[in-house]
Structures are given as structure tokens and as C-alpha cells.
User: Fold these one by one.
Assistant:
Number 1:
Amino acid sequence: MDHGKRYNAVAEKLDRNKSYEVDEAVKLLKSGGATKFDQTVQIAIKLGIDVKAAEQAIRGSVSLPKGTGSTKRVVAFCQGGDIQTAKDAGALEAGADDLVAKVNGGWLDFDVAVATTEMMPKVGRLGRVLGPKGLMPSPKSGTVGKDVATMVREFAAGKVEFRNDDGGTVHAPIGKASFSEEDLKNNILAFVGRIRSMRPASTKGVFIQKVVVSCAMGPGIRLNLS
């Protein structure tokens, strides 16, 4: 497979049999040079979980210490005074029955949906609309709660949602290539720490089996986090 110059510039420096310390990995990430757009830095963590066991599912959210370098369009399902509170906090749209009807009618021009606990019986009826898009509010992902303003602000600022895929791997953005080495390092360690803290009691053996970071246009770099 042919790759671009920036990909090859990093790939030729890699030892595919080596796991790199975070400091060294971040230097390699940034060694491909500048691009016309600010590349997203991704992390992939292979977990030692049984994906068929519901109690071992890994799903949640985390506010990275240095942010993600991007913003998200957030809508808030809420009622009463919370509607204006959500809008003041930066919600693209906020409402109760009217917003439920709008989304049920096919409007999905947003990135994250949050909901107050009281609204979930109504929002639950949108499962067939929001579920396939990964937009259904859930307590596990931090998108359901009582403090609608905090949820809106955090997710609008790039709070990261994550869940394991069918292969037991968690993927997430952890910054931009323009971030300083120190900021990328802090975000990587914070994300890995969050995943490590979620180890299900029923798992056996090594929980975090492999961690790889990469830029959108670069090769994967395996980390040594033992």
C-alpha cells in the first residue's frame, strides 16, 4: 500500500517490534511535519475483555486535561428553567417535547445529545432514531444527569465519549498534531488512566493489552505503559 511522504517520514523511524515510552512516541508523532489541516491524534486501546459479557463492556466519557482541540454541537433534552440554562451554556438546541418531536422527525444535525434525568422517559422513545447513530444519552457515557449546564459545557468543549468495539478495542481522539508534546502526553496518560480505572471485576489476565497512538495521516506507534 502506497503512503504519503509524511506517513513514510515517521514510518521509517519506527521499530515495529518496539513499544515506545510516551515521551518518545509523542516526538515521533510530531516528526512527520506540518499538514494543510491540523491532524487529529487518535488512541486505540486493545482490552482483555469478553465482549459478549455485558458486565465487561467499557463505556464512558472523560474530560482530557488539555482538551481535544475541537468543539461539538450539543443539544439538551430538558424542561422548565433548564432550557435557558442549557442554551446559556452553549447548547445548539434545548427543549422538551418540541425537541423530541424535532429529532423524531429526522433532525440530527448535532454531535452530542445530553438529557436531564427527568427527561429520559420521553427521550427513551427516540432509541430507534438516536441509537444507530450513537447519539442516545446514557448515564454510562455521562450524557444523562441533573446538571445540564455542566454537561453542555463539557461536551461542547470536546469531552470524549468512548466505548469498546466488537473486537474489544476502545478508540478515541486525544488531541491535535499542533498540541505541544507535553499536552499530548498529559492527554494520553489521562485517557489511559481513565480506562485502567474501569477494569471490570470479572476480567482475567492482562486488562490493557496494547495501546497505539497515531496521527490521521501517520502510522500507529505502540506505547509501553507497563
Number 2:
Amino acid sequence: MQKEERKISRRGFLATSAAVVGGAAALSALGCKKEEPLPTPTPAPVTPPEESYYIGTCRGNCGGKCALKATVREGKIVSTMPLTFDRQYEGVQHGCMKGVTNPLRIYGTNRLYYPMKLVGERGSGKWERI
């Protein structure tokens, strides 16, 4: 028994492929409905929280007492920036990185909340609350 080889021409392959794709598209279009566009929601007006600005000095234990401008939002300091001076006050210290990081030191998760006393050997890390 000999096997018959079927040879398909390029034209026949393209015609068959087009018929299959067209039939699939026609079948999928039968179940489609035209959908109405969804109404676009109007965003609620967003009012930014009130900000207050205060001028003070840094208490970073460096002795510089740099002048800082603090931004307070909802009762918390959110940023501190060095205060700028006119030329007549040239030479006055404007601020350092320690002063700019005040909000992190005030509200940081690793800050101390209570005074502590060392109870073990130095370097042992054993502390007790006073």
C-alpha cells in the first residue's frame, strides 16, 4: 500500500487560512453587543490640608543653633529647611543636614520615647527604662 502525498499550494493554504479566520470572526461577532460607554465619574474636589510655617532654631546638640523654617501640616512637622538671609547677615550659619532631618528624628520609629539606663556591661545592649 502506498501513501498518497497531498501537496497543497501556497494559494490554497492562504485561501483556507483566510476562510478559517473569517469564519471564526463571524462566529465571535454573533455574540457581541454594542456596549454603551460608561459615564465618566466626576472627581470629588480635593482640598489640600492647611500648612503653617514657623521659624525657629535647630536643637540638634551641635551648638550651631541654625535658623530653620518648619512646615507644619495637620499638627505635625513635615519639613524643615534652612532659613535664607539677606546679604547684611552674611556669615550667619544657614543650616546643616542635621537640622533638615528634624522631622525624622522627632517622628522616627527608632527614636527613644523614655530615658533609658544601661544595666549590663558596656556594649551588651541591656537597658532599662528610668
Number 3:
Amino acid sequence: MEGESEDIKKLLDEEVKKRDNFFEISYENPDPILVARRYKDEKISLICSLFAYGKASLIVRFLDSLDFSLLESSEEKIKKSLKNSYYRFQSPDDIANIFITLKRVASEDSLENIFLKGYKKEQSCVDGLVSLISALEKVNRYDSYGYRFLIGKAPLKISGSSALKRWNMYLRWMVREDNIDFGLWKRVEKKDLIIPLDTHTFKVSGKLGLLKRKSCDLKAAIELTEKLKEFDKNDPVKYDFALYRIGQEKKI
């Protein structure tokens, strides 16, 4: 088993080195971070990550259609400007309200500071996300299926919580810094990040023997992160993009 683990580490390390390239992300090889890193702004990045579900090319096309300067506009202008915007489960009202929510939050504090209030208790990204998601809920009571799908639920306990893939991806962008991630937040440690686990990464990790859990949930994301710490205890989430591409390109 030790030899197998070394082989997997070698495979992943090679993929990390290969993928750590600014041109790994392009319109030919799309990913929502393509839009996020153009602005390098914590609020715009959160919008990009929350809409990161579905086909990558369609996500990028939708994000490119948004006028992010609306985050500095009045709520009336936001609603008027986005009245014809749709994305899968999200209606124009849903899209307008995520802009309104982030505008209201920004008037009180930065997203980083709100996250840190929870994170600093025990250096837990789960606690940080509870703090951040709860703050978004507090400033805007608007609710619908599409909006709730975007925001998700604050993970008040590990068991039974969703994997929070899009939120953990957002944290990866904000905290890590290489040729793909842009590391705007300097007070959160890379070692505390949790792998952004979706069904593709879940399946690949199972095939590689990195994950035994049968449910793709937050508990599985933490289990996989702990396993990846055996390969790099200080930056386990650096393997996220490698696992994603291995699955996408059907390398196993």
C-alpha cells in the first residue's frame, strides 16, 4: 500500500506542476476563475464561484455577461439592469439579490473580516463559512429556491452538511497563490483549506483510493483533505485542480 501511495503522490505532483500555468485556464479550456482573476476582487470572485455549477463554458459565458460595476450602484439600478438575466436555477430577481446582498455586506465590513471572525476561533474554515454565510443571510431576507441554491446553508455541523464545493473553491482562490489562484486573503492559512469536492473529484479520489466515504458531502471533503495532507501537510488543496483535470481528461 505504501508503494501505491507513493505512485499516487508522484502522479498528483506531476499534474500539479504541469497545471500550475497561467495559460492552463483559457476560453478553450474554461473555468470560472478565468473571469474572477480578471478582477481580483473578493465580491466579484464570490459571485463567480457561487455560479460555478453546470458546463464550464456556459458558466464563463454567463459571468462575462454580468456588469460587476453594479456592485457600486443603487439597489434600484441593480434590479433594473439585471431584469433580463437568467442562469439555470436563478431568475433575474435571484441574480439581482446576490448583487444587493454583497453590496449591503460591503457597506458593513469586508468578506475577509467576516470570515475571520469565525475562522480565528479554532482556525477552522467551516466556522469561517458559518460566519460568512450567516452574514449574507442577515443583511438580506430575500428567499427563493434559486437564491437558496446559490448561497447554500451554513454548515452548523459536519455530519449531514453538503460538501460546499463552490464555497471551498472560493476559499482556494482567495487564500492560495500560484499561477492559477490569486490569494487576496493573507490571514488564512493554506493548511486549513478544505478540498472543493464535487462528483467528479469524488469519483476520481475514490478510484485512486484516496477516499473511502460513499457520500459526496462535507465529511468526505474533510476526509480527502486529511489524506492529501499526507502528500503536503501545508498545502493539501493544491491537488484540487490536478484531481479535477485527471477526471475531466479521463486519465484513469
Number 4:
Amino acid sequence: MNRLLSQKFRFYSFVCIALLLFVHGYNLQETYLTPFSLVTERLTFTTFIEYFLANGALRFRIPMLFIISGYIFALQDNRSYKERIRRRFHSLIIPFLIWSAFGLLVTYAWQQHPLTARAVYDSQLDQMGDNRPYSEMDWVDILIRWLVAPVSFQLWFIRSLFFYNLLYPFFKWALTKFPKIWFTIALVGWFSMFNFLFLEAQGIFFFTLGIWIQKTNFPIIKKPKWLSAFLCWLFFIGVSVIKTFMAFELEADNPETTYILVTLHMITVFAGILAVWYGADPVVKWFMRRRWFLWSITFSFIIYALHVPLIQYTTRLSFIYFHHLKLYRLGTYILVPALLLLFCIAVGALFRRLFPKAYRVATGGRGF
């Protein structure tokens, strides 16, 4: 792999994961944002900034991670499919089980004290809509929350990624035989927000796009001469701003609202990928020459696995203590993710140093 391309993959993989904290750290009254979510509270500087970042400008991250994942998996065709799936089971499913259980334990521990239990309840994280203490649930409820609907909801990515890896032979065949038909179907599926079990159309579209880019040797290393990085950034930010304003102004009972917001979401994602990938090469080169940054990159998976549900719980806990301060919501949105990012890196460094074998298993062999 080209050295610059390798550097960009490593840089953006870390950046996309680090930005997750600001995507998941929002404190709007709407506790779960979808691409077509509206904001029911009034428009303020704080609510605008939070929606603009969490559900607008930073939405390119997961698609970019899927592109990178698809590209790298397709690059390994010299290895047997069976061997690759075995390795992916150890690097994806085993960490999923470990960190999903960890999220349950963290939640249970926070539920044991009245103050922290209130923070857990206010977060409303339970994917089943049942925010009772775990001590009041039976083992079937806990099992479902471990395997199917984890409180560490960000883990859906590695679980889905494993199933995309399983389907790789089919994806490769479809992309080889019918690429235009495949991407048309995948794009329509994404627009319709199609999901079935652990398969979701957006992830499939971008994972297969990564495969296609690798198999066709599509030039992605450097910016095409005809592409203006400035115009890409301008368009990307502009559409994100428009989508944010519309989320405050559109009516929920209007059937066109969902289609408008989903369309703007898709445009924002495409524009964001182009702007970020082709418009920041000097930034990538500068950071990839810094030893402290290269060291931090090794803890990407720990940041990804550890930050939820902690970021939601610490956000709500900070509300309890600092709600009397001016601009406490905006301050919380900025400080809690930043501090938790440093905390995750510190925990990762300590974990790797004291228990290297356990660290290797928990991260799927990453970070060494």
C-alpha cells in the first residue's frame, strides 16, 4: 500500500473514532438522533452547535470507516476466506462480547448509588426502552442487552462489520458482475434507511464502495486537479448548516420532512468525505510526523469501546452539579468529550502496560 494512503487510513481512522465522543456527547432533549431527527426545543446557539456537529457535519465518520474497512479487507485476497473470517471473529466479535459486558457492568455499578443512578436514568440509553435498574430485570433481559441491544450502542459497528466480512464473496461477485445495478440498489436502500437484523444499508453501501475502490484501483491518494478543496469544504459546511436549521423548522407531521432531512444527510455525508479526504493532506502529514500523535493512534479501539456509556453518564452527572452555571450545556458538550478522550487514552495505556495479554484479547490484537 502506498505510504501516503496508509498514513491517511491511520489518521482518519483515529480522527473518526475521536470525533465519536462529540457525536455521542450531545445533550439535547432528543436523546437518540437519527439522520431525520427534528429538534423539539427552541433554537439557541448551544442547541444549534450540538445538532450541527452531532447530526450534521460529523456524520461522515462512520461511512469513511466503512470505506476504509472494505478497502483493507479487499486488499487481503491473497489470504484464504476462512482464515480471514477466523481472524475477524477474534478481532470483532470477541471484543464486542467483552465490551458489551463491560458496558453492562459500568451501568450496574452506577445504578448502585442514588446520585449516579439518576444520571443513568436521565441518559435514557436502554435500547429496549426499559430504563429500570438491572437488579430488577431477569437473566433473559440481561442476555438480550449483552448480545442484541447493548447499552454500549456504538458496538453495532464492529458487529455489523463482521457480517459484512462474512458476505464479502457475495459483495465481490456483485461488484464484479453488476457494479451499476449494485450501487443503485444500495443507494436506494440507504435512502430508505433499510435495516435488517445486523445489516444496515448505509454500512453496506460504503463497505462495498471501499471494496470497489480497491478492486478498480480508483485513484484516491491525491486530490484530482479538477476538484477544489475550498469549494468542497464550503459546500459541506453549507449543507450541514441548512440541515441543522431545517431540523428546528420543519414540521414533524409533514410526510416530506423525513425525505428532506435524509436527502440532506446523504449529501452532507458525501460532501464531508470528499472535503475531509481530499482537503486536509497537509494536516495529515503534519500530525503523522508527531510521535505523541502516533502513540495516541494506538489507543483508537480503546477510545471507541470505552467511551459509551461513560460519556452519557458523565454528561448527565455534570448537569446535576453544574446546572446553575451559565452556558453549562455548551460547556459540558465541549469539556466532557475532550476530558473523556484523554481518560480513555490514559486507561488504554495503563491497561496495555499492566495486562498486555488481556489488552490484546480485548482489542482484537490492536494497539501493539
